[in-house]
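Hey, quick one: can you model this chain's 3D structure?
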Amino acid sequence: MQKKNGIPVITVNSPVVLSFVLACFLVTLAGVLSGYRITRLLFMSYHSSLVNPLTWLRFFTHVFGHAGWAHFFGNAAYLLLLGPLLEEKYRPRTLAAIIAVTAFATALVSYILFWNIGICGASGVVFAFILLASFTGFKEGEIPLTFILTAVIYIGQQIFEGITVSDNISNMSHIVGGLTGAAMGYILNRKDFRPEAGK
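Sure thing. Here's the predicted structure for all 199 residues.
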């Protein structure tokens, strides 16, 4: 622990996660102050013309927008809990890529399958982090029991709620995010694919 005059020093231990959460906070604040007009314009993915450049931008930026403070704080808690461990294991550049891939995957599936639904929020990224974290201790040729149990609990819950509960929570984003995290966890932990240290 770093100390200055015997006093612990606060360090930026997870730049990608902290930057992501800060960006989500600022975008949520801008959305609240603008009556969510800014959120709908730039930080919510919905079915619009592929000729419109904003459609492609929103495929990635929708993870920053949130439907309110409860939505933001719920996601931020998970991101700050899981993110630093994952950033230390996989390195900042790789984790940033995982966030971008998850954002695009959730938006693309929503665009193709759900024409009348708009999505925003980092819930898909949270579920990617949860499934990715369950790959800790992964060894080639093995499937961790923790991964199986996590997948059954979290993905199973989302499938069940998607069938039985009618609310404004995008279960599809959670499922796609979780599957993305699981796929990335498997790929990144293979012996023939290791992120370079310091990247």
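One thing worth noting: The chain has a mean pLDDT of 83.
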